[in-house]
Design a protein that fits this description.
EC 3.5.4.5, Cyt/Deoxycyt_deaminase, cytidine deaminase activity, Cytidine Deaminase, domain 2, binds 2'-deoxyuridine, metal-binding, binds zinc ion, 4 helices, 131 residues, globular, Cytidine_deaminase-like
Length: 131
Amino acid sequence: MQKQLMDEATKAREQAYVPYSKFQVGAALLMKDGSIFHGANIENASFGLTNCAERTALYKAYSEGNREVQAISVIADTEQPVSPCGACRQVMMELCGPDVTVYLGSINGKMVKTTVGELLPGAFKAGDMNE
Ligand SMILES: O=c1ccn([C@H]2C[C@H](O)[C@@H](CO)O2)c(=O)[nH]1
Ligand SMILES: [Zn+2]
């Protein structure tokens, strides 16, 4: 299962639009109904507008009306398994919750299995806001 989901993320990575960093990242979501969503990083000349692979995949799934994420995989050309940025960790927490499995990989074959909660302990949540 994890190998298959990593393969899906590897496929997604090919669609990265990365004229600035040349750093391709792919993500894949396995939904509870068995369907797969793909995401790649999409950069912009205004660098801050860049969207990471993880958020691309999550926004695609939500936009298509599928909110039931079972597992996430992310892959890039890194020495160690790729580490999602803070923004993606925050979005994963809100859209998936802490218990969803996350597979982080490198194209060199290294992989770690973690969870959204482990990636963002002490996350800020909607319930933290006072009325
Ligand atoms: O987990 C990560 C880390 C980085 N990036 C992208 C953002 C940018 O396009 C490039 C360099 O930061 O990699 C992702 O998509 N996901
Ligand atoms: Zn990110």
